[in-house]
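agent> step 3/5: call structure_predict on target 'Ig-like domain-containing protein' (Pangasianodon hypophthalmus).
agent> reason: downstream docking stage needs a structural representation; sequence fetched in step 2, passing through unchanged.
tool.input:
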Amino acid sequence: MSTHSSRQYQGIMTSFFPICIVLGSMCVSLLSAEAEITVSGQVGSTAVLPCKLQSVGTETPHIRWLTESEIVFERVLGEESYQAEGYEDRVDVPEEELRKGNCSLVLQNLSLTDAGVYTSYQIVKRTKRSTSVKTKTEEINRINLSVQEKPPEKRTEIPTDDAGMKCPHPPIMVLSLISCLLLQFFFA
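tool.output (status=ok):
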């Protein structure tokens, strides 16, 4: 490469690099601006709706999960938790995880009626100099839960040859053949 071509190439790359940085940061900001996360699961399975406390201070963590129509779960660390009707013994934010700032909602035995948007909130109590206590509810995130029916169970039979031996799948046979050829090529 000639010196002129080399300088021209460096000039193009030097002017192209800042454009890449700007476009990359725009993509990152657009991705991080997405406020709603989608989680999906099948009927009967367990879904974890992610949540991380925004601030872990000296206050006892207090978390609340709601749907558009009701409070689904509420926990104040060290106290009894609340589980809405229909969610009893199926929802939890484990205390040991909440101590670490993980407020993810574990929803077991999913049903089709569980589908919807779930919003997590952190309840923050602030004590003023006087004896009054102000409570502030801060939204953490919104999770769109989709629930699908279980696909019908398929019985898969492994094809056998005439001798009754199980035949490997074609991709495995092709990969084995290519591996043998490559070994022969390199060690020949």
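agent> step 4/5: record observation. The beta strands are 36-42, 47-49, 62-66, 71-76, 82-83, 91-92, 105-107, 116-127, 133-148.
agent> proceeding.
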